[in-house]
């Protein structure tokens, strides 16, 4: 398993650092740094009290927690949220309540999202007149069938 050291700073000394729930997990659990109530279909920016220093060639992707999505309808409006390598501000989660009837109460310290850190290449786009042929071609949504 490849390991990577990433600098992290507590902007609030009382917050818990992100951690993996189980060995081998891909996502580090992010926690809310304040208590918020999210009305049905409302979006709220939830601070984590943390900042990270990702090295060049890496990015962070903030993703919903599946249990909260299923149980109460909590998701992330811009999923996955992207953290670029040179961003040094506070990590915040744009949470959205997808339940049509019930508000969601997020308590300070509650796990609200997952942070996945991945290596990303620097891409150099090369303009061409034609793209190479593939078996999919220009087939879009639903092109592979429903089964």
In short:
The chain is mainly beta and 147 residues long.
Task: State the secondary-structure class.
Answer: mainly beta
The strand line-up of the biggest sheet is 2-11-6-8
Major sheet: size, sense and barrel closure?
Answer: 4 strands, antiparallel
- Tally of individual helices: 1
Mean pLDDT: 94
Low-confidence stretches: none
Describe the structure.
The chain is mainly beta and 147 residues long. 5% of the residues lie in helices and 35% in strands. The model has no long low-confidence stretch (mean pLDDT 94). The longest helix has 7 residues, at 66-72. The two termini are 35 Å apart.
What order do the helices and strands come in, and which of them pair?
Elements: E1 7-10, E2 28-31, E3 36-38, E4 43-47, E5 50-53, E6 58-64, H1 66-72, E7 74-76, E8 81-83, E9 92-97, E10 104-106, E11 111-119
Sum up the structure in keywords.
about 150 residues, mainly beta, four-stranded antiparallel beta sheet, three-stranded antiparallel beta sheet
